[in-house]
């Protein structure tokens, strides 16, 4: 069974940093693209970005609001995806989800999400 | 960055049919945008219903179908059930990234 478990969320002050983790199991992690999606309180879904699998170069694309502040990385030996967030702003407050986005998963399943709150 | 537009809200009667649409500020939506549709119920993570315009996941009820319609991606629900009341989001792919629509709140009433 494919499972994703996000962790690392919490409270952080504006300008601070945080690292989220997404532990994956039940599939061959290293070949797949992984995406991050966030949802601010009472708002819609927002694509944060994705990181390609190793055979596609392992590079990343980021949404404009987070580019230059967020960085994705992955430890394929441990099947863990990371989201490194820096210079956090109040508008980054959201639940952050990870999901495998390439074949054969196509954004399924989703983890339970981890809450990030940026506030002074 | 492209803007993806959806109807903010729609209402359908139980057993009725409704079509949700997904447009792009850059022009007609095509298969090259690889449209996705997601369903999200309160307090739950999203669930993917359809990808690549028309393809369903194994858990997607048969009453949901995807298409391209009038330059937009479309999600049609035929025979609405009370449990279909939820928020629905589309996702389109562009060079360099993907963009969600603002979501459609579907009421079954």
Quick structural summary:
The complex is a heterodimer of chains A (120) and B (109). With 120 residues, chain A is mainly beta.
Question: Would you mind describing this structure in some detail?
Answer:
The complex is a heterodimer of chains A (120) and B (109). Chain A has 120 residues and is an all-beta fold. Chain A has strands at 3-7, 10-12, 18-25, 34-39, 45-51, 60-62, 70-75, 80-85, 94-100, 114-118. In chain A, the strands form 2 sheets. Chain A has a 6-stranded mixed β-sheet with strand order 2-10-9-4-5-6, with no helix packed on it. A 4-stranded antiparallel β-sheet of chain A has the order 1-3-8-7, with no helix packed on it. In chain A, strand 5 and strand 6 (60-62) form a beta hairpin. The radius of gyration of chain A is 13 Å and the shape is globular. The mean pLDDT of chain A is 95. Chain B is mainly beta and 109 residues long. In chain B, the strands form 2 sheets. In chain B, strands 2, 4, 5, 6, 9, 10 and 11 form a 7-stranded mixed β-sheet that branches. A 4-stranded antiparallel β-sheet of chain B has the order 1-3-8-7, with no helix packed on it. Chain B is globular. In chain B, 38% of the residues are buried.
């Amino acid at each position: 069974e494919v499972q994703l478990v996000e962790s690392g969320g919490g409270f952080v002050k504006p300008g601070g940093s945080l690292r989220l983790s997404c532990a994956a199991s039940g599939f061959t992690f290293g070949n797949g693209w992984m995406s991050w999606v966030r949802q601010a309180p009472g708002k819609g879904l927002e694509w944060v970005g994705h990181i390609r699998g190793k055979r596609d170069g392992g590079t990343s694309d980021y949404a404009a609001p987070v580019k230059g502040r967020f960085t994705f990385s992955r430890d394929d030996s441990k099947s863990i995806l990371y989201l490194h967030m820096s210079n956090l702003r109040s508008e980054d407050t959201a639940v952050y989800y990870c999901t495998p986005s390439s074949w054969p998963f196509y954004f399924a399943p989703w983890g339970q999400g981890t809450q990030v709150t940026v506030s002074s | 960055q492209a803007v993806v537009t959806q109807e903010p809200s729609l209402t359908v009667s139980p057993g009725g049919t409704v079509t949700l649409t997904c447009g792009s500020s850059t022009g007609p939506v095509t298969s090259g945008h690889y449209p996705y549709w997601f369903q999200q119920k309160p307090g739950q993570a999203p669930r993917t219903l359809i990808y690549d315009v028309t393809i369903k996941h194994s858990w997607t009820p048969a009453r949901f179908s995807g298409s391209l319609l009038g330059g937009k991606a479309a999600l049609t629900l035929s025979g609405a059930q009370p449990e279909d009341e939820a928020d629905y989001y589309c996702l389109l792919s562009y060079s360099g990234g993907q963009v969600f629509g603002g979501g459609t709140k579907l009421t079954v009433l």
